[in-house]
């Protein structure tokens, strides 16, 4: 599939789909939060109606949540706009949703949620390609945060899919080299 045909927020080889903030819900009871421009998702995925499509069937049937101060009508069935204070809205969402709330397609939203201590787990996908441009997920000046590796795998296409749980703030220490080193 060419880059102009690639669906926004598509999977990494079909291994996993769940719920999101900007969001949707999976059978396991997950919610998704979309942080990309709503038109990126909502102009493509609602038109994919094949019930056998593992991504479209989840994205179209589960609740979706879009944090936005300007969007009024998301134009996609099952989508709720979170227009208030991000910390309060996401905290309330996490309290009322069974399962996990996921963010798809927005490093900016993830950075905001990390700075507000609203991220419990990171599922990081690393694709075997260097684009040469883009934004850092963890920008300079980000709040130092420790994570514990829970597990991971690599797809047949070489996509590394790793899961990390939040451990809080890192502990710092010192290490002295032996004098004979």
What does this structure look like?
Helices cover 18% and strands 22% of the residues. The protein is of the alpha/beta class and 181 residues long. The protein has four helices and seven strands. The chain has a single domain (31-168), classed as Dihydrofolate Reductase, subunit A, CATH 3.40.430.10.
Assigned CATH class: Alpha Beta
Report strand %.
Answer: 15-25%
Order of helices and strands: EHHEEHEHEEE
CATH-derived architecture: 3-Layer(aba) Sandwich
Instruction: Report the end-to-end length measured between terminal Cα atoms.
Output: 53 Å
**Class inferred from helices and paired strands:** alpha/beta
CATH topology: Dihydrofolate Reductase, subunit A
- The largest beta-sheet arranges its strands as 3-2-1-4
DSSP summary, beta strand count:
7
Overall number of structural domains: 1
Largest sheet report: 4 strands, parallel
What form results from the Cα inertia axes? Answer: globular
CATH superfamily: Dihydrofolate Reductase, subunit A
Helix content: 10-25%
Q: If you average the pLDDT, what whole number results? A: 79
Tell me the Rg in angstroms: 18 Å
Please summarize what this structure is.
The chain has 4 helices and 7 strands. The chain is an alpha/beta fold. A hairpin with a 5-residue loop joins strand 6 (146-154) and strand 7.
């Amino acid at each position: 599939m060419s880059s102009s045909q690639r669906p926004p927020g598509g999977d990494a080889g079909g291994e996993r789909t769940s719920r999101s903030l900007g969001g949707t819900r999976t059978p396991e009871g997950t919610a998704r939060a979309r942080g990309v421009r709503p038109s990126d998702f909502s102009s493509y995925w609602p038109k994919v109606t094949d019930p056998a499509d593992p991504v479209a069937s989840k994205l179209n049937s589960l609740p979706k949540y879009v944090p936005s101060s300007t969007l009024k009508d998301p134009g996609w069935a099952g989508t709720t706009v979170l227009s208030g204070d991000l910390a309060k809205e996401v905290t309330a969402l996490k309290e009322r949703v069974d399962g996990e709330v996921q963010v798809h397609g927005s490093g900016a939203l993830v950075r905001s949620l990390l700075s507000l201590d609203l991220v419990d787990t990171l599922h990081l996908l690393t694709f075997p390609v260097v684009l040469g441009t883009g934004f850092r997920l963890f920008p300079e000046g980000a709040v130092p945060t420790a994570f514990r590796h829970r597990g991971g795998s690599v797809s047949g296409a070489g996509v590394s899919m790793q899961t990390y749980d939040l451990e809080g703030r890192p502990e710092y220490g010192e290490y002295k080299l032996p004098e004979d080193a």
